[in-house]
Amino acid sequence: MTMSSKIDQFTESLRQSLTKMEGQLERARADIKSVQHDDKLALAAKLRDARHFVESTREKTKTAGARVQSWFKTQEATGAATIASWRENAEKKKLDTHADRAEEHASAAVVYAEGAMADALVATFEALEARLASDEVAASALQPPR
Q1: Residue 48 host element (H or E)
Q2: Where are the domains of the chain?
Q3: 111 and which of 31, 64, 97, 141 could share a cystine (Cβ 3.0–4.6 Å)?
């Protein structure tokens, strides 16, 4: 596979992942808007679905997070000067290996971001649920005892 086709394949894969993530974000935005202030059943269903999604992707997200952390440690150890020296010394194999690892990191970072976005959606629904409960408690406290 030529370097040009590797770049094309990587960028296309990344584009598809980001497009998928954008769709998930739009669905999340729509889900949040669709939950009416007094519709506890709809909110409970959205929260249940979001929690299920987070649970089903937890291992994948944790693995991606570990890969992202590993990349950061590698970057700290390698440094820009080392990469510049590889370029100066025409060390193609090292540069190719670095490019492969950078692509793996980018892919892992997208997976991790998807998991973080799903966690944020769960937290948002939990906050809405708690606010509704708080409003109910406040409203019942204002009503005279029977």
Answers
A1: helix 40-88
A2: 38-76+103-133
A3: 64
